[in-house]
Design goal:
The structure holds two protein chains of two kinds.
Chain A lengths: L9 E2 L12 H19 L16 E4 L4 E4 L2 E3 L5 H21 L2 H6 L1 H17 L2 H9 L4 H27 L4 H10 L4 H21 L1 H7 L2 H4 L9 E5 L1 H4 L7 H18 L7 E2 L12 E2 L17 H4 L20 H12 L7 E5 H8 L7 H5 L2 H23 L3 E7 L6 E2 L5 E11 L5 E8 L5 E4 L6 E4 L3 E11 L4 H4 L2 E10 L5 E9 L4
Antiparallel strand pairs in A: 2-3, 3-4, 5-8, 6-7, 9-11, 10-11, 11-15, 12-14, 12-16, 13-15, 16-17
Helix pairs in contact in A: 1-4, 2-17, 4-6, 4-8, 6-8
Chain B lengths: L10 E6 L2 E4 L3 E2 H20 L18 H15 L1 H9 L9 H23 L23 H10 L25 H14 L6 H14 L1 H4 L6 H10 L26 H10 L19 H12 L6
Antiparallel strand pairs in B: 1-2
Helix pairs in contact in B: 3-11, 4-11, 5-11, 6-7, 6-10
Classes of the chains: A alpha+beta, B mainly alpha.
Chain lengths: 517, 308
């Protein structure tokens, strides 16, 4: 092969101009977009009363004070396992949904998809539908084109700004921050974060779009491992659609039916063999004719109208089979169902089905029921693991105490002998008060009658811990001179912390180090 | 799945042993991003320190230096803490606990000073070692009140640099021939007796007379040490200047700087001891500790558990 006809190593991006489409999946996507964007933009504005000294924002990631608030739940840094648990659940959830329903996350709920959908929607409002957009793309620069492009990018920038703006409200008191942002009083980090997120939102949702899914996202590459022959995913029933072709529909159908009858009779089959219906909400259950086995007259249901290709936000042809680029958004199903309705054919030429059933249907058999596909060992294992972790987290949440203590024995030095022979150990005790007000706590010890306690600088071994914080107390435990505890290497005992407001108590075991003689 | 040609990606035409390569070209922007990173990389090495030369790397046009940043940050912190340091340098240490914020600042700063300057001898946990006093316990030779600790830190012990250093010298009773070996044995038995350890009663009895004539003037008639006498004077309303204490340890308690067993005591009485601590005030030592640092480390040592 000479250098001149060597294949090109780099290809330009083919711009994608998805056409408007309506139907069941499009409606569902509008609803999901409304709900997810609504949650994202409004969640930081919900208030939640936690007492006078605590933030009243329902969802708040307080990085400065290292607290995470989620409605009635408050997470301290040492309880970060909740976040880890939720991440594991999110991962398992993704596995479960992918193994059962293919890339539903990609097609409906992924922020990249939702925002891209939003950006395509605004683009359509400004520039018009597919054909108008293609014309505009090819048109030379003119005042109109400049005006439309400027309008589009201004609207996109505003969406991006709202997106970046909503993000930072999760990290600070939203109403205060909103005022600060407008008056120019907010921290530079807030403005920088907003600027970065505005840029990335416009870039990823408006400019890069499907390129993010194809080149940047690892998930399309991993998800193939979650899917199998029973996974419900989007495909094209090529046994029904092929051979595809344009032509006078009515005449062709008539000829086809006639030819089919003739050929089937010749083959000894009953006349008018029909394929099983693929029912769907809002569609009549029609029965379609099996394509003729005679290649001379054969015509499939696909009229090659390219509707499925034109509506595809990824710019692919689903009729080419399963592809890495396909995010299974379902828009091609809506587009094809509309066309099938117009030409009087049953819906479902492009549809959700299991790859396994595709083979069965091709052979004329009855496909397995959907619920049998969904409840299979693989999905049951994922669900069990998911529920197990969820149950453990809920259990931990209810066991989570409002007071907590940790004891760190001071090991440098291990013990100190006082002038009168008393042996003294020091401990650093951290008392956590999760209540919304300051509370007094008494530190006591039990387990050994000879050991006694001294809390530095506090009478009655009582310390006051401010609201929602931790107090570090240096505590001394002493054994009298010559006592067994002073002479022994180690003596076990227990620290107690009592909340004097309501009597709640908690403990931690520790050791007393003696002379070890 | 179907017979359509467009389902199969085009091939590059490359073939090795029957293995062919699909033609899946990279997007062009990917190439441009690669060029952009190359340009960025070159610009970066011009703007920032990068290329290794003979003795140092190129400095970069922006003059960026992490050392300079650290120095700047330290200067910033110093400037921010200037008021606190000023207040700490002039504070009345006895009244430090009346200003909790300053006290907290002092103990934190003192901990850092202690780790840097004091821990070499006294240990990172301040528990000391043989010859280096334990600062965590409640026994003090030169006084454990915060102002006494500050004086010790500033002037040190038995050094030549500060004229006001704490100073005392126990005679080397054996080496200088003041007591005979037998007398030393007897007085050691007496010390063992008053500190509640096993001893030979007869020898201790004999030793008590030697103790009364040779040791009691500094260690006190009952062996409670010079600090107990100082406290008695102070309770009697007499002022007792810091530099007049003589640092003779209490011989009756459980704490020994060099050791309380018969062998070590004999060695101590025979040869005496001469522990030295530097004077840390900047006046006597460069680099030394500022008044704020002296006050801070004193506050830190005072709150370790033994402060009086």
């Amino acid at each position: 092969m000479s250098a001149s006809d060597a294949p090109k190593l780099y290809a330009s991006r083919e711009p994608v101009f998805p056409r408007r489409v309506s139907g069941f999946f499009r409606r569902m996507k509008w609803w999901i977009m409304g709900v997810t964007l609504g949650i994202y933009y409004l969640l930081p504005w919900i208030r939640w009363d936690r007492g006078p000294e605590m933030p009243n924002q329902a969802v708040l990631l307080d990085l400065a004070d290292r607290r995470f608030f989620f409605f009635w739940i408050e997470i301290w840094p040492h309880e970060f396992y909740f976040v880890a648990g939720l991440l594991v659940m999110a991962g398992l959830g993704l596995f479960l949904f992918t193994s059962a329903l293919g890339r539903v996350w990609c097609g409906y709920a992924c922020p990249q998809t939702v925002w891209t959908d939003l950006f395509i929607l605004t683009e359509r409002w400004i520039d018009g539908d597919r054909n108008a957009r293609i014309r505009l793309w090819n048109a030379p620069w003119s005042a109109k084109k400049v005006r439309l492009r400027v309008t589009k990018y201004i609207v996109w920038a505003l969406i991006g700004l709202a997106t970046g703006g909503a993000w930072i409200f999760y990290f600070a008191d939203a109403p205060t921050l909103a005022v600060d942002l407008v008056t120019g009083q907010a921290h530079p980090v807030a403005y920088t974060t907003m600027a970065i997120l505005t840029f990335t939102t416009v870039f990823m949702g408006g400019v890069a779009r499907e390129q993010v899914c194809i080149y940047a996202c690892p998930w399309p590459r991993i998800q193939a491992a979650m899917m199998d022959e029973s996974t419900i995913t989007i495909g094209y029933r090529d046994w029904r659609g092929e051979p595809r072709g344009k032509g006078n529909v009515k005449r062709r159908s008539a000829a086809k039916a006639e030819a089919a009858a003739r050929v089937s009779q010749a083959a000894g089959e009953p006349a008018g063999r029909q394929y099983p219906p693929t029912p769907y909400p809002g569609h009549e259950n029609k029965l379609g004719a099996w394509p003729s086995p005679d290649p001379a007259v054969a015509r499939g249901d696909c009229i090659d109208c390219m509707a499925c290709v034109n509506v595809c936000p990824m710019g692919i042809d689903i009729r080419n089979g399963q592809q890495m680029e396909c995010i299974t958004c379902g828009l091609c199903i809506d587009a094809c169902d509309e066309v099938m309705g117009k030409i009087g054919k049953p819906r479902g030429l492009i549809d959700y089905f299991a790859l396994q059933d595709e083979q069965v249907e091709r052979a004329g058999g009855t496909p397995t029921k959907i619920w049998k596909h969904i409840f299979r060992p693989r999905t049951i294992v994922y669900t069990s693991l998911w529920s197990l972790i969820g149950a453990a987290l809920i259990f931990a949440l209810f066991m989570q105490p409002d007071i907590d203590l940790t004891v760190a024995p001071v090991r440098n030095p291990v013990y100190v002998q006082m002038a009168d022979g008393t042996v003294r150990n020091a401990y650093e005790i951290r008392v956590r008060n999760k209540h919304g007000e300051a509370r007094p706590f008494r530190i006591t010890l039990s387990g050994d009658p000879m050991l006694y306690l001294d809390v530095e600088g506090t009478p009655y071994e009582t310390v006051t811990v401010p609201a929602d914080s931790m107090a570090l107390e240096r505590v001394y435990v002493m054994a009298p001179p010559g006592s067994e505890q002073a002479e022994a290497a180690r003596t076990g005992f227990r620290f107690w912390v009592t909340d004097l407001t309501n009597g709640d108590r908690t403990y931690e075991d520790s050791h007393f180090n003696g002379l070890g003689r | 799945m179907s017979e359509h040609d467009d389902q199969v990606p085009e091939k590059t035409g490359h073939e090795w042993d029957g293995i062919e390569e699909y033609d899946n070209p990279l997007p062009k922007w990917w190439l441009w991003v690669f060029y952009a990173t190359v340009v960025w990389g070159i610009g970066y090495t011009i703007a920032y320190p990068a290329w290794p030369m003979v003795d140092r790397a190129t400095g970069g046009l922006l003059g960026y230096s992490t050392r300079a940043l650290v120095a700047e940050e330290i200067a910033e912190v110093e400037a921010r803490n200037a008021d606190l340091n000023e207040a700490l340098a002039n504070v009345d240490l006895v009244a430090l606990d009346e200003t909790p914020e300053l006290e907290s600042y002092a103990t934190n700063m003192g901990a850092a000073v202690f780790r840097a300057q004091c821990s070499q001898c006294h240990g990172s946990g301040a528990a000391g070692a043989k010859g280096f006093p334990n600062l965590v316990d409640d026994a003090w030779i030169w006084g454990g009140r915060i102002e006494e600790i500050a004086y010790t830190v500033a002037h040190g012990i038995r050094n030549e640099s500060s004229p006001d250093a704490r100073w005392s010298q126990m005679p080397a009773f054996g080496r200088d021939g003041i007591l005979s070996d037998e007398e030393i044995d007897q007085v050691v038995q007496h010390v063992l007796a008053i500190s509640g350890q096993e001893h030979d009663a007869q020898m201790a009895e004999a030793g008590s007379e030697i103790y009364a004539s040779q040791c009691a003037s500094c260690h006190g008639a009952d062996g409670q040490g010079s600090l107990a006498q100082t406290r008695e004077f102070q309770e009697g309303g007499e002022s007792f200047p810091n530099d007049e204490t003589i640092g003779a340890p209490n011989l009756t308690d459980a704490i020994w700087l060099y050791g309380g067993d018969e062998e070590t005591l004999t060695e101590t009485v025979h040869n005496s001891r001469f522990g030295v601590m530097p004077a840390w005030a900047e006046e006597w030592r460069q680099p030394g500790l500022s008044q704020a640092e002296i006050n801070a480390v004193s506050a830190y040592v005072h709150q370790l558990g033994g402060g009086q």
